[in-house]
Amino acid sequence: MAEQKGTILIVDDTPTILELLQKMLIRQGYQVRVAGSGARALEAVKASLPDLILLDIMMPEMSGYEVCEHLKADAQTRDVPVIFISALSETKNIVNGFTLGGVDYVTKPFQQKELVSRIKTHMTLRSVQKKLEEKNVQLEQINDNLTREVAERKRVEEALRLHAARLKIQRELHQSILAARSPETIAMAAIVRIRQLIPCQRAVAVAIGEDGTIQTLAAESSGEIESVDVNVYRELFEDPSLRDGRVRGSDDLSLPSRHSPMQLALYAAGVRSYVFVPLLVQDELVGTLHLEADRPHTFTHDHVTVAAEVASSLELAIRQARLYRQAQRERQRADELLLNILPASVADDLKETGTTVPQSFENVTVCFADIVGFTVIAAQYEPEFVIGELNEMFTAFDDIVERNHCERIKTAGDAYLAVCGMPEANENHAYNIVQSAI
């Protein structure tokens, strides 16, 4: 017996034909299955898919044509080649067989050699077809793998590019902070850079002052979104979630929902999605970094991460600016204190060198003044009123002393001490002091 070459299903309602075809094909090395009706043929195909079907046409209950229609209507069986074998030899019958999807048509009585040759041809074609299908599946898998690899490589490259850009932004911002640049300058540099990485039509850095006023540190827009009054954002500074450091945003402002006044104003300006990142200094909400886009679902998790990193730099810049202003105020108070208790030249020496050299002056006139009955007056009025009056009076004294080329030395309570002839020599020192006094 020859080696089996494939499986053939023979469908015929005549037992003698079934037996004849079965023996003939087994001798040719094929594995053979038989079905005596159309219904049994469909059951056999469903149980195990053959490589080829020899199908009689004239059968009771279900003809070969009907069986073929069922086979071709099912995606699992439509590719199995069907050879019609029938006593019907008219052209219309043959054409109908091919129209329904048959690959060949053999009339009875048939020549065994001719039938075997046709079966062999179609089995070979079927084998080639199956190999091509398997190859296509393999190629599709390879293509899918390559597509995934390319996509993953692009994702990694984009992640590396974004990371490098983020590092560059952080480096530039830190350099600006070290250079003691203003928060406005640093904020503008930040939003210019951030718009190169994140697809937003507008970026805004908003700050709330120590007095509660809201101001725009910096803003940049590509024009698709209209500007809104900075006070529109005031509700942000009343949001507990922002004060806790959580990012606030909306993926789609166009969705029908209950919008706040701020969201309505943003929608009217053309904003369809946004991200607001809080700026915190020592757990105090001091501002927000805004990213606004004219399309929904613009911002990704990576975009929010970049914005949060930039926000950290802005927080540092604002904190440094506050510390600088505080230091300036303290320095001014220290200067005023020194001038109140020391001559200007001595105060300058102490500020510049931390020390001063004692000096003596021979031609100096001193004027000492105080208020008669000050203790009684101070007891009769509120301290704020008394201090205000003293300040106004001593300010007037300062002007008089300066006009007469004298210098205030010290004030203490209601006492006022001025000199002329030191630290700069003045030959009219006595006259000038008298002029100041009267």
Could you report the average pLDDT, rounded to the nearest whole number?
A: 86
Q: Judging from the principal axes of the Cα atoms, what is the shape? A: rod-shaped
What Rg do the Cα atoms give? 49 Å
Computed structural class:
alpha/beta
What spatial order of strands do you see in the largest sheet?
2-1-3-4-5
Domain count, please report it: 3
- What is the name of the CATH topology of the largest domain? Beta-Lactamase
For the record, what CATH class of the largest domain applies? Alpha Beta
The CATH level-2 architecture of the largest domain is identified as: 2-Layer Sandwich
Biggest sheet descriptor: 5 strands, parallel
- Strand percentage lies at 15-25%
CATH homology superfamily name of the largest domain: GAF domain
Give the N-to-C terminal Cα separation: 145 Å
**DSSP strand tally:** 13
User: What sequence of helices (H) and strands (E) makes up the elements?
Assistant: EHEHEHEHEHHEEHEHEEHHEHHEEH
State the low-pLDDT regions, or none.
Answer: none
Given the structure, what is the number of helices? 13
Helix content: 40-55%
Keywords:
five-stranded parallel β-sheet; 438 residues; Beta-Lactamase; 51% helix; 3 domains; 18% strand; alpha/beta; five-stranded antiparallel β-sheet; Alpha-Beta Plaits; Rossmann fold
Q: Your description of this structure?
A:
With 438 residues, the chain is α/β, with parallel strands linked by helices. The protein folds into three domains: 7-127, Rossmann fold (3-Layer(aba) Sandwich); 180-324, GAF domain (Beta-Lactamase, 2-Layer Sandwich), CATH 3.30.450.40; 345-437, Nucleotide cyclase, GGDEF domain (Alpha-Beta Plaits, 2-Layer Sandwich). Helix content is 51%, strand content 18%. The chain is built from 13 helices and 13 strands. Strands 2-1-3-4-5 form a five-stranded parallel β-sheet, with helices on both faces. Strands 7-6-10-9-8 form a five-stranded antiparallel β-sheet. Helix 1 (15-27) links the parallel strand 1 (7-11) and strand 2. Helix 2 (38-47) packs parallel to helix 3, helix 5 packs antiparallel against helix 6 and helix 5 packs parallel to helix 9. The longest helix has 67 residues, at 112-178.
